[in-house]
Design goal:
This protein is mainly α. It has twelve helices and two strands. About 75% of the residues lie in helices and about 0% in strands. Helix 2 packs antiparallel against helix 3.
Amino acid sequence: MCDVKSSEIEPQEADCEETLYPKSFKDRSTGLSVFGCLLVIPGVLFAIMFVFFLVIALWVSIGDRPAVGQMALRWLYGFLLLGPVLCAWFVVVGIGSMCARRWARSIILAWSWVELVAGLADLTSFLDTFDEVPIGHIPKGAALLMKIFMIIIFMAFVYFYGSEDVRQTCESRDTVARWTDKCPIPVLVILVASANKLFGVLVSLIVALPKFYFGHALGPVPGAVAAAFVCSICVYVAWGAYRLRKSAWWCGVILALILFFSEAVTYARGATFADYYEVFAASYPGDPLMEKIPLGTPAASLSLCLVYFVWFGYLVYARKYFANRLARQSS
């Protein structure tokens, strides 16, 4: 009897072990450390730039200083405000990758997908206007190679962090419950994309970048109001997406449609920075930086239209995750 029971139990234990450890995997700890170092490097560079610009800001604010335009000062103080955020982002996720944390893998994978799609759309727009749009003092060939290089980098990140071996390596080394466990990676993409858009709008608000909505350039006050509205929606979408709120999904869809049609109208209208110059020249009279704006540059690019169109389609695809939450609550 004992032999029979043991023979019956042993296969069950083997099945249980096979369920817990479905298959062998290649340990990718070395790769996680290498990619983590690649992420930490930009963070260190941003920290060095922060110290450099802080010294410049102190030099400008005290004693005799060179003539500096108001727009240049806004760029300077804008970096001092937002530079530490970029530094912290790259350093934290880089160290998280080196430590094989599950939350780091999920966040980096979602962020890599967002940057990859944005980079492909930007490359499409760049090729569309290759012979028309000036790029300052950067040779267009070098700019094209730079964009292709960044796309390859993000493709490598997506391929590596999306692999099964990396997932199992992180799960085997990090057995503690993490905050990303409650949110599927496709939904984390929505969270990261909303945070990315929020950061971009804050940059444009602080440093007074051109703000065009539906083909018209907005002045400082209307532009700030529009930027605050977009920021508030992005914050709610990011917060609600993590909690799988259906209302956050709807807000994301509506915002994507508004921004898509706004960029499409601006692109179709052919608005240029000359419109922006007319609106902002009164706010920055005699500013040397205003005089260096390439007035013929289009205010809206095909890339933004493509990004918002793809973003709308992705939100439609991700709706099932929010519907599943409602189904689980009702059951």
